[in-house]
């Protein structure tokens, strides 16, 4: 697999100002170095406040880094500030997909908006692209007329995935995309993402506390602690031979919940 996304020395310092009686909380992330190959799935794991979600926001350009660079297909974006093309090529899926949908707009309008704002397609062409992406994520063309309250949790997640795919990105970034789904819907969503990866050559970066899904889905794992990458490697290597204490703690916690025969 060829290298698609490269992050070099990405650094971000966040100061959460409290009231005048308390000192501000400062969280520093980085410097972060990582690369993502075409069609690869990378899981980011770690305990709470490790900096996982912050890194995801930096990757999609929702936050600007203080320094460092992101390169996509050799297109350079300094200090974590993504160009328009890079922002199109790296898209995010949110954990609570329903909350990210405007309840006053039908699905068709929600999916049409990124096309209308970012492309030169006319209305007829946009409608065709909207219907095509709905089919691609396992929904019907008729879902363009549906509102949020008319959709199940699984269907809302598929709409969120369709919105992320509508601009034909090369990388999807997701923060706990499966946490709010029941097990059967979760399984369907995982399988759908695997199918889309195979068809579209997508790279997928996701944050998860569910190490069962991580082991099933990820090619590589990145372990974070206190804003730093403390360990990374192939999934089975990390699960079988964790090196860092944080990794060992996470894997041991997972293994304690899984019947031993499934670990052989």
UniProtKB/TrEMBL annotation:
InterPro entries (UniProt xref): AAA+_ATPase, ABC_transp_ATP-bind, ABC_transporter-like_ATP-bd, P-loop_NTPase
UniProt KW Isomerase keyword: no
UniProt domain ABC transporter: residue ranges: 5-251
One Pfam match: ABC_tran
SUPFAM superfamilies (UniProt xref): P-loop containing nucleoside triphosphate hydrolases (SSF52540)
Family that this chain belongs to: Belongs to the ABC transporter superfamily.
Main localization (coarse): membrane
Gene Ontology MF annotations: ATP binding
Location of the protein in the cell: Cell inner membrane
Full protein name: ATP-binding cassette domain-containing protein
């Amino acid at each position: 697999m060829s290298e698609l996304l490269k992050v070099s020395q990405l650094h971000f310092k966040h100061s959460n100002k409290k009231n005048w009686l308390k000192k501000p909380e400062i969280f520093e992330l980085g410097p972060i170095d990582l690369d993502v190959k075409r069609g690869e799935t990378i899981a980011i794991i770690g305990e709470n406040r490790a900096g996982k979600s912050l890194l995801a926001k930096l990757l999609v350009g929702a936050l600007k880094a203080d320094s460092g660079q992101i390169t996509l297909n050799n297109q350079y974006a300094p200090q974590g500030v993504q160009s328009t093309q890079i922002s199109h090529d790296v898209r995010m899926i949110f954990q609570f997909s329903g909350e990210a949908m405007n309840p006053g707009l039908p699905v068709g309008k929600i999916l049409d908006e990124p096309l209308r704002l970012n492309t030169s397609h006319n209305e007829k062409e946009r409608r065709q692209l909207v219907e095509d992406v709905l089919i691609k994520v396992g929904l019907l063309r008729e879902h363009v007329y549906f509102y949020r309250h008319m959709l199940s949790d699984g269907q809302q997640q598929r709409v969120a995935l369709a919105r992320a795919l509508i601009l034909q990105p090369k990388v999807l970034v997701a923060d706990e995309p499966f946490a709010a789904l029941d097990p059967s819907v979760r399984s369907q969503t995982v399988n759908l993402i695997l199918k889309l990866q195979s068809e579209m050559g997508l790279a997928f970066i996701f944050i998860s506390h569910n190490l069962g899904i991580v082991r099933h889905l990820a090619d590589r794992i990145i372990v974070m602690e206190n804003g730093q990458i403390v360990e990374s490697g192939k999934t089975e290597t990390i699960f079988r031979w964790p090196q860092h204490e944080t990794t060992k703690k996470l894997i041991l916690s997972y293994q304690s919940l899984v019947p031993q025969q499934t670990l052989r």
